[in-house]
Every structure is written in structure tokens, then in C-alpha cells.
Amino acid sequence: EFEVQYSGIQEIDAALRSLESMKTELKRSLEAQWKIEQTRKMQISALAHDIKTPLTVVRGNAEMLNDTDQTGEQREFTHYILKNASQMEQYVRMLIELSKAEVGYLLQRENVNTRIFLDELYSQINALVSIKHLKTEFDEKNLPEIINVDSSLMQRAIMNIVSNAVDYSPDGGLFQFFVSAEKNKFRFTVVDSGKGFSAEDLKNAAMQFYRGDSSRSSKSHYGMGLFIADSIVRQHVGSLSIANSPSKGGGMVTIEFYFCGLLDFE
Predict the structure, then answer these.
(1) Burial of 198 from C-beta contacts in 10 A (0-12 / 13-18 / 19+)
(2) Contact status, residue 150 vs residue 109, Cβ threshold 8 Å
(3) How far is the C-alpha of 50 from the C-alpha of 38, rounded, in Å?
(4) Which of 35, 143, 170, 261 is most exposed, with minimal Cβ within 10 Å?
(5) What are φ and ψ of residue 180, in 5° steps?
(6) Which residues lie across from 146 on neighbouring strands?
């Protein structure tokens, strides 16, 4: 989006006209690609929702079959139907989440009591880390009384990161969670005790479907956890950064966003 300013010199103006023509064609091409991409996203989202209905019918009928008198072989077949219907439902939920993350979530920021927000978060974290008997370390610094945030979505983004950290930590390992505020920015940092991110992970970990090497991948996440978290954080006009802990060597993921909201700075 710029206007070409002609100089009045014939040779230069000829080059500028060529540049303007290229600019116009490039803009037209990019707009066409953008429209195609938006249509694709809408079609995937619609398809994912449409698949849910026949899947519900399949699951419902299989559950009714399960309650009837069956031979051992028939019961085994019914079990296969239910098991694979559940797996397909998981794939459909994944597609729906992906389309939401790509298009953007409906953000509803509001002033939230920081203590209440964190206590709810700690409750979820403690339940998750207990599965692998992880040692926990929590730290808080300079916290404001109120933060402006979509509480549900931000907790979801953080728990995606926490879930990854728990997956990649060995049983009985250390899980660290730091919260701080500085210069109107709120910061969450999650550190696991796993092997850390590889060089390739550090570049691509927040991309959709990226799963990295087998030592830092989970079959249950399909490479979407950090992608969804990053999408939510960016909608809060914040940033998600990935590094390795300089002291522990494990993976370290940090979220930052303005805790007062943009309106307070206008």
C-alpha cells in the first residue's frame, strides 16, 4: 500500500511505472491467495462440525449395541467401533480447535482479580503435576491486584504449556512456574526438567502440527499445544517465547502481555 512518486525524468519514471505494475499484480495475487486461504479455513471448520453429527449417531448406536446380549466376538467388534469413534471425535475436536486458533478466538477481556486467577491456575497445575509426582517450585513478584485478560482463554493457553512441560519431565522431576509483573507487562514462565528444546524446536515449536524429535513429542497433542497458546497470547497483544533454562537445561516457555489492556494506554 504505497503510491509511486514520479520524478519527471523519463528513464527513472519508466522504471517506476514497471515497479507500480509489479506492485499492483502482487497485491492482486496476495489478495486472491488470502481469500482462498480464508475459504479453506471456513470449509474445514464447517466440515469438522458436520462430521460430529454422524459420529454421534455411530457412537450412540454402538453404545446401545453394547447393552444387548452379544457373543464374545460381537462384543469385541462393538468395542472396536466405540474405540475408533472416540479417536475420530478427538480428531474432529482437533480440527475445530485448529480452525478457531487460525481464525482467532472471540476474546472477552475483563478486569480479573489476580489472586483469584492464580489460585484457580495453581489448582489445575497441582492436579496435573501430581500425576508424575513432580516437585514444584512457584514464585511470584510485583503482582498487581487486577489484570485485564480473557481469564478462560489465558488459563487455557497456560495449561497447554504446563501440560507439555509435565509430559516432557521425568517422573519425580522438577516443575517451575514463575509469575511476575514489570512495566505494565505480566509474565508467566514455565520450566520443565526434560532434555530441553533442540535448535530446530526453538525455531518451529509454536508452528501448528510441529512435534519435534521423539524425546520432546507427545502423541496426545498433535503439535497443537503451543500453536493454540501462541494464538491466544497474540490476541492479547502479547508474545510467547521458547528457550532452554540457563540453569536447569530444561525447556522454558514464557508468556508476556500488557496486564492493563490496550485501552488504558490510549
Answers:
(1) middle
(2) yes
(3) 18
(4) 35
(5) -155, 165
(6) 113
* Alpha carbons 167 and 17: distance in angstroms, whole number: 57
Residues with Cβ within 8 Å of 68's Cβ and at least 6 positions away in sequence, in order, are none
**Which residue in the block uniquely carries the three cell numbers 497458546?**
229
Amino acid at 53: T
3-state secondary structure of 229: helix
pLDDT digits (tens, 9 = 90+) for 50-94: 787 788 888 899 999 988 999 989 989 999 899 888 888 877 877
Task: Take residue 71 and report the three cell numbers written for it.
Answer: 457373543
HSE-CB of 215 using CA atoms within 13 angstroms: 10
pLDDT tens string 124-179? 999 999 989 999 999 999 999 999 999 989 998 999 899 989 998 999 999 999 99
At 40, which amino acid appears? Answer: R
Q: Angle CA(196)–CA(128)–CA(138) in degrees, nearest 5?
A: 70
- Choose among 175, 170, 160: nearest CA to 194: 170
**26 vs 1, 4, 5, 40, 144, CA distance in Å?**
11, 15, 18, 21, 47
d(CA 207, CA 41): 16
